[in-house]
Amino acid sequence: QKEVEQDPGPLSVPEGAIVSLNCTYSNSAFQYFMWYRQYSRKGPELLMYTYSSGNKEDGRFTAQVDKSSKYISLFIRDSQPSDSATYLCAMTGGGRGSTLGRLYFGRGTQLTVWP
Amino acid sequence: ETGVTQSPTHLIKTRGQQVTLRCSSQSGHNTVSWYQQALGQGPQFIFQYYREEENGRGNFPPRFSGLQFPNYSSELNVNALELDDSALYLCASSSSGKNYNEQFFGPGTRLTVL
Questions:
Q1: Closest partner residue to A46 among B43, B88, B102, by Cβ?
Q2: What percent of chain A shows pLDDT beyond 70?
Q3: Of A66, A115, B34, B114, whose CB count within 10 A is highest?
Q4: What is the pLDDT of residues A88-98, one digit of tens each?
Protein backbone atom coordinates (compact mmCIF):
# COMPACT_ATOMS: atom_id res chain seq x y z
CA GLN A 1 0.00 0.00 0.00
CA LYS A 2 1.34 3.39 -0.98
CA GLU A 3 1.63 6.00 1.77
CA VAL A 4 -0.53 8.49 -0.16
CA GLU A 5 -3.29 7.54 -2.58
CA GLN A 6 -4.75 9.96 -5.10
CA ASP A 7 -7.07 9.25 -8.01
CA PRO A 8 -5.20 10.34 -11.15
CA GLY A 9 -8.39 11.20 -13.04
CA PRO A 10 -8.59 12.73 -15.56
CA LEU A 11 -11.31 15.03 -14.28
CA SER A 12 -13.13 17.29 -16.75
CA VAL A 13 -15.61 19.97 -15.62
CA PRO A 14 -17.32 23.01 -17.17
CA GLU A 15 -16.26 26.51 -16.23
CA GLY A 16 -17.91 27.66 -13.01
CA ALA A 17 -18.23 24.17 -11.51
CA ILE A 18 -17.13 23.25 -8.01
CA VAL A 19 -14.22 20.83 -8.12
CA SER A 20 -13.44 18.34 -5.37
CA LEU A 21 -10.02 16.68 -5.21
CA ASN A 22 -9.12 14.10 -2.59
CA CYS A 23 -6.30 12.06 -1.12
CA THR A 24 -6.12 9.34 1.48
CA TYR A 25 -3.06 8.34 3.48
CA SER A 26 -1.96 5.59 5.80
CA ASN A 27 0.71 7.15 8.06
CA SER A 28 -0.83 8.63 11.23
CA ALA A 29 2.40 10.60 11.83
CA PHE A 30 1.56 13.03 9.02
CA GLN A 31 0.69 16.43 10.45
CA TYR A 32 1.34 18.93 7.66
CA PHE A 33 -0.71 18.78 4.49
CA MET A 34 -0.19 20.63 1.23
CA TRP A 35 -1.75 21.00 -2.18
CA TYR A 36 0.39 21.87 -5.16
CA ARG A 37 -0.67 22.84 -8.68
CA GLN A 38 1.55 21.75 -11.54
CA TYR A 39 1.16 22.96 -15.08
CA SER A 40 2.45 20.76 -17.87
CA ARG A 41 6.24 20.40 -17.81
CA LYS A 42 6.61 22.93 -14.97
CA GLY A 43 7.53 22.70 -11.28
CA PRO A 44 4.80 22.33 -8.61
CA GLU A 45 3.40 25.57 -7.18
CA LEU A 46 2.31 25.59 -3.53
CA LEU A 47 -1.42 26.39 -3.27
CA MET A 48 -2.43 25.49 0.27
CA TYR A 49 -0.52 24.57 3.45
CA THR A 50 -2.35 23.33 6.53
CA TYR A 51 -1.44 21.86 9.88
CA SER A 52 -3.44 19.07 11.53
CA SER A 53 -7.21 18.76 11.10
CA GLY A 54 -9.59 21.50 10.03
CA ASN A 55 -10.39 23.81 7.14
CA LYS A 56 -8.42 26.58 5.47
CA GLU A 57 -9.80 28.94 2.86
CA ASP A 58 -7.87 31.11 0.40
CA GLY A 59 -9.94 32.83 -2.25
CA ARG A 60 -11.63 30.20 -4.40
CA PHE A 61 -9.70 27.38 -2.75
CA THR A 62 -10.62 25.49 0.44
CA ALA A 63 -8.48 22.75 1.97
CA GLN A 64 -9.95 20.27 4.44
CA VAL A 65 -8.09 17.78 6.61
CA ASP A 66 -9.75 14.95 8.54
CA LYS A 67 -6.99 13.17 10.42
CA SER A 68 -9.38 10.70 12.03
CA SER A 69 -10.28 9.38 8.56
CA LYS A 70 -6.82 10.04 7.08
CA TYR A 71 -8.50 12.00 4.29
CA ILE A 72 -7.76 15.40 2.80
CA SER A 73 -9.64 17.44 0.22
CA LEU A 74 -9.22 20.51 -1.95
CA PHE A 75 -12.28 22.34 -3.20
CA ILE A 76 -12.13 24.83 -6.05
CA ARG A 77 -15.14 27.14 -6.40
CA ASP A 78 -16.10 28.90 -9.63
CA SER A 79 -13.49 26.92 -11.56
CA GLN A 80 -11.77 28.65 -14.49
CA PRO A 81 -10.02 27.30 -17.59
CA SER A 82 -6.78 28.64 -16.08
CA ASP A 83 -7.25 26.10 -13.24
CA SER A 84 -6.56 23.31 -15.75
CA ALA A 85 -3.48 21.57 -14.36
CA THR A 86 -2.39 18.56 -12.32
CA TYR A 87 -3.11 18.88 -8.60
CA LEU A 88 -0.75 17.08 -6.23
CA CYS A 89 -1.42 16.43 -2.57
CA ALA A 90 1.61 16.20 -0.29
CA MET A 91 2.16 15.60 3.39
CA THR A 92 4.86 15.18 6.00
CA GLY A 93 5.39 14.43 9.65
CA GLY A 94 7.46 17.56 9.98
CA GLY A 95 10.75 18.34 11.69
CA ARG A 96 14.32 17.52 10.79
CA GLY A 97 16.37 14.39 11.27
CA SER A 98 16.11 11.16 9.33
CA THR A 99 13.40 11.69 6.73
CA LEU A 100 10.94 13.57 8.89
CA GLY A 101 11.14 16.65 6.66
CA ARG A 102 10.47 14.85 3.39
CA LEU A 103 7.24 15.33 1.49
CA TYR A 104 5.19 12.31 0.47
CA PHE A 105 3.18 13.00 -2.68
CA GLY A 106 0.15 11.52 -4.32
CA ARG A 107 0.47 10.82 -8.03
CA GLY A 108 -1.63 13.86 -8.92
CA THR A 109 -5.10 14.43 -10.40
CA GLN A 110 -5.26 15.89 -13.89
CA LEU A 111 -8.01 18.55 -14.08
CA THR A 112 -9.42 20.17 -17.21
CA VAL A 113 -11.89 23.07 -16.97
CA TRP A 114 -13.56 23.70 -20.31
CA PRO A 115 -15.17 27.04 -21.26
CA GLU B 1 12.20 37.98 -3.57
CA THR B 2 13.93 35.55 -5.93
CA GLY B 3 12.34 32.13 -6.28
CA VAL B 4 14.02 28.76 -6.66
CA THR B 5 16.02 28.45 -9.87
CA GLN B 6 17.42 25.33 -11.53
CA SER B 7 19.84 24.69 -14.36
CA PRO B 8 19.95 23.40 -16.96
CA THR B 9 16.33 23.27 -18.14
CA HIS B 10 16.82 20.20 -20.31
CA LEU B 11 19.57 17.66 -20.58
CA ILE B 12 20.15 14.63 -22.78
CA LYS B 13 22.70 12.01 -21.73
CA THR B 14 23.53 8.46 -22.69
CA ARG B 15 23.48 5.44 -20.43
CA GLY B 16 26.57 5.18 -18.20
CA GLN B 17 27.35 8.90 -18.25
CA GLN B 18 27.38 11.22 -15.26
CA VAL B 19 25.28 14.37 -14.78
CA THR B 20 25.27 17.37 -12.43
CA LEU B 21 22.13 19.42 -11.83
CA ARG B 22 22.15 22.75 -10.02
CA CYS B 23 19.72 24.59 -7.77
CA SER B 24 19.68 28.03 -6.18
CA SER B 25 17.38 28.27 -3.19
CA GLN B 26 14.85 31.01 -2.56
CA SER B 27 16.21 34.05 -0.74
CA GLY B 28 16.27 33.42 3.02
CA HIS B 29 15.96 29.62 2.70
CA ASN B 30 18.70 27.36 4.05
CA THR B 31 17.25 23.90 3.39
CA VAL B 32 17.19 22.23 -0.03
CA SER B 33 15.41 19.02 -0.99
CA TRP B 34 15.66 17.11 -4.26
CA TYR B 35 12.86 15.08 -5.83
CA GLN B 36 12.56 12.87 -8.90
CA GLN B 37 9.28 12.97 -10.83
CA ALA B 38 8.68 10.29 -13.45
CA LEU B 39 6.08 10.95 -16.11
CA GLY B 40 2.55 10.65 -14.70
CA GLN B 41 3.77 10.19 -11.12
CA GLY B 42 4.14 12.35 -8.05
CA PRO B 43 7.60 13.55 -7.00
CA GLN B 44 9.73 11.06 -5.05
CA PHE B 45 12.09 12.30 -2.33
CA ILE B 46 15.80 11.79 -3.09
CA PHE B 47 17.50 13.65 -0.23
CA GLN B 48 17.60 16.87 1.74
CA TYR B 49 20.45 19.20 2.71
CA TYR B 50 20.58 21.51 5.70
CA ARG B 51 23.67 23.48 6.71
CA GLU B 52 25.73 21.67 4.06
CA GLU B 53 24.95 18.24 5.53
CA GLU B 54 22.68 15.51 4.16
CA ASN B 55 19.64 15.58 6.41
CA GLY B 56 17.70 12.57 5.18
CA ARG B 57 17.58 10.29 2.19
CA GLY B 58 14.86 8.47 0.29
CA ASN B 59 15.07 5.09 -1.40
CA PHE B 60 17.71 6.00 -4.00
CA PRO B 61 21.05 4.24 -4.59
CA PRO B 62 24.43 5.79 -3.66
CA ARG B 63 25.07 6.81 -7.27
CA PHE B 64 22.72 9.70 -6.46
CA SER B 65 24.75 12.18 -4.42
CA GLY B 66 24.57 15.83 -3.57
CA LEU B 67 26.22 18.89 -2.14
CA GLN B 68 25.09 22.07 -0.48
CA PHE B 69 27.28 25.17 -0.56
CA PRO B 70 27.68 27.96 2.03
CA ASN B 71 25.30 30.17 0.04
CA TYR B 72 22.69 27.32 0.35
CA SER B 73 22.75 26.49 -3.34
CA SER B 74 22.92 22.79 -4.11
CA GLU B 75 23.98 20.20 -6.67
CA LEU B 76 22.57 16.79 -7.49
CA ASN B 77 25.01 14.36 -9.09
CA VAL B 78 23.99 11.11 -10.71
CA ASN B 79 26.65 8.60 -11.80
CA ALA B 80 26.33 5.64 -14.15
CA LEU B 81 23.08 6.88 -15.64
CA GLU B 82 20.38 4.33 -16.37
CA LEU B 83 17.40 4.61 -18.72
CA ASP B 84 15.04 4.73 -15.71
CA ASP B 85 16.76 7.90 -14.51
CA SER B 86 14.89 9.80 -17.23
CA ALA B 87 12.61 12.14 -15.28
CA LEU B 88 11.96 15.69 -14.14
CA TYR B 89 14.33 16.54 -11.26
CA LEU B 90 12.92 19.07 -8.87
CA CYS B 91 14.63 21.14 -6.24
CA ALA B 92 12.66 22.63 -3.34
CA SER B 93 13.82 25.08 -0.70
CA SER B 94 12.45 25.92 2.72
CA SER B 95 13.39 28.12 5.65
CA SER B 96 14.43 27.13 9.16
CA GLY B 97 11.59 29.08 10.74
CA LYS B 98 8.17 27.90 11.90
CA ASN B 99 7.08 27.10 8.33
CA TYR B 100 10.00 24.73 7.83
CA ASN B 101 7.81 22.16 6.08
CA GLU B 102 6.54 24.67 3.52
CA GLN B 103 8.65 23.74 0.50
CA PHE B 104 8.83 25.84 -2.65
CA PHE B 105 9.81 24.20 -5.91
CA GLY B 106 11.87 25.31 -8.86
CA PRO B 107 10.90 24.71 -12.49
CA GLY B 108 12.85 21.47 -12.67
CA THR B 109 15.46 19.95 -14.96
CA ARG B 110 14.18 17.44 -17.48
CA LEU B 111 16.74 14.67 -17.92
CA THR B 112 16.53 12.23 -20.80
CA VAL B 113 18.81 9.20 -20.78
CA LEU B 114 19.24 7.42 -24.12
A1: B102
A2: 93
A3: B34
A4: 999 998 655 44
